[in-house]
Every structure is written in C-alpha cells, then in structure tokens.
Amino acid sequence: MKKSIVTLAAVFTLSLLPAALRAQNPPQPAPAAPQHFYHLHFAIEELNGAGTLTNTRTYDETIATASGIDQQIRTGSRVPIVTGSFGTPAQTQFQYIDLGVDLDVRDVKEQSGMLGFRLKAEISSIARQSNIEGTNEPVIRQNTWDSLVMVPTGKPTVVFSSDDLDSSGKMRVQVTATRID
C-alpha cells in the first residue's frame, strides 16, 4: 500500500513539473516577419480576336508587406448620363457615372519567394452609343475581378482574363511584383 501511495505521489509530482517549468519560462512571441517593399506594375491589356495586343494601359504602385494598409489606384472620368427633364422650358437632369480603372490591393503577404494579395480590378468604359427614343445613350462595358492571387517576384503574370462581350477579343490584367529593399 505504501508503495502505491509513493508511486501515485511521484506521478502526481511529475505531472505538475511541466506546468511549473512553463510558469518560469513563459513562451516567447514569435519574432515579427520582416517588412519588405515591393513595386507592383499592372498592365491592362486588350487583345483582338486573333490574340494580337491592341492596347495596353499601365499603372504602378509601391506596397509594403505586413503593413495592413489597403492600396488603391483610381483613374478615369465622370461621364454625364441623361436621367430626365422637367419644367418649361425643359431642363435636363444628369447623373454622373465614374468610368475608368480601379485597382485595390489588400492583405499582402510573402510566401516562398512569391507575393500573395487580394486584388480587385474594375475596368469600365463606353463601348458604344445606343439610340433610345431618338437620344444617344452610352453603353457601358465593365469587367470586374476580385480574387486572392499569388505572383512570383520579378516575372510578369496574367492574373485575370476574360472575353470581351462586344467582340471576339479579350481583356486581361497582368501584374509584375519586384522587391525593392
């Protein structure tokens, strides 16, 4: 009986030992990942039905990893759209629509020699005019993508691509990430 009590006391003491050691040496937080800076080069490309590049627009920004700051590029025009008329003499009412390129970069992270981030790209323009009851109204073309992407550093990478609904062409978004620190 004495032997089992001694054995039970030893097991109990040994089970408390790791907790006592942890109390003396609390776990240290992992060191923060180093923050690096990258230059992002965006190319918005339009291709015709044969796959020949017909137009390229470029946009650049510098970002920091682990900064937690969202990055945005906005460029374009405000286009007036007739929404009605009233009174005598008639006064025309307008609403303005923003057209152009919007690029949003969020949640930037480095992983195994690649740069990952959430990219939202919205490209809109006037595709053509449409005659509605004797009034020319613009037809708006819009491409919107929103996804997590991974790009290798220093290599141009197509991250989004879609058919142009008004033709047999395509539109695509290409990103090149270059580390600059």
N/C terminus separation: 70 Å
Sequence of strands across the biggest β-sheet: 2-1-8-7
Per the principal axes of the C-alpha atoms, what is the gross shape? elongated
Mean pLDDT equals 84
Quaternary organisation of the protein chains: single chain
Give the helix level as a range of percent.
10-25%
Q: Which class of secondary structure composition applies to the elements?
A: mainly beta
How many DSSP-defined strands? 8
Tally of DSSP helical segments: 1
Q: What fraction of the residues are assigned to beta strands by DSSP?
A: over 45%
What is the H-and-E element order? HEEEEEEEE
Question: Would you spell out the secondary-structure blueprint of this structure?
Answer:
Layout: H1 2-24, E1 37-47, E2 53-64, E3 71-86, E4 91-111, E5 114-132, E6 135-152, E7 157-163, E8 170-179
